[in-house]
Design a protein that fits this description.
Layout lengths: L1 H21 L13 E6 L2 E6 L14 H8 L8 E2 L31 E2 L6 H24 L10
Antiparallel strand pairs: 1-2, 3-4
Length: about 150
């Protein structure tokens, strides 16, 4: 019975991974750098989807700032949420005023994602660590005209 459950879980994970790769914005995709690029967005740079969105009709023309927001790349990754550093609670771990969060409404929920223990997403996790470096190097190249690598220990 447990072998059937494991096979079913593996098949389900494989389908999810395939859908993520088809989105072109999955960090585990070996071709992700072909789908995104850094572009100026006011006084900052933003990671945008390279493919042009469908052209709106003349009645639906958007301002350039709305187009930038629509083209922002929302990247995906599969991680295991670590118990340490987990603050996705209603109070985001806020206990008292600090310089960063003087009020409860200033607190931001966060968590730490670590490598999935097993399964097909485990290899992708270590690959995406390298991609993060490539994405930040691409940003530095965009801004400064040269690349410099950031190393991430696995």
């Amino acid at each position: 019975m447990s072998d059937v459950k494991v096979a079913s879980t593996d098949e389900h994970s494989a389908r999810i991974r395939e859908e993520l790769i088809d989105s072109s914005l999955y960090l585990g995709d070996r071709k992700i750098l072909q789908h995104v690029e850094w572009k100026a967005n006011g006084r900052k740079e933003s990671l945008l989807v390279k493919e042009a969105p469908p052209t709106p009709s003349s009645e639906e023309q958007k301002t350039s700032s709305e187009n930038i927001v629509a083209d922002l790349a929302t990247l995906s990754a599969v991680v295991r949420v670590n118990d340490n550093g987990f603050w996705l609670t209603s109070d985001a771990g806020w206990r008292a005023p600090t310089n960063i969060a003087p009020h409860l409404h200033d607190a931001k929920g966060s968590c730490v994602g670590v490598s999935p223990a097993t399964g097909i997403f485990r290899d992708d996790f270590f690959y995406l660590g390298g991609k993060r470096s490539d994405l930040t190097a691409a940003d530095r190249y965009f801004r400064f005209g040269r690349t410099s690598r950031v190393r991430m220990q696995g």
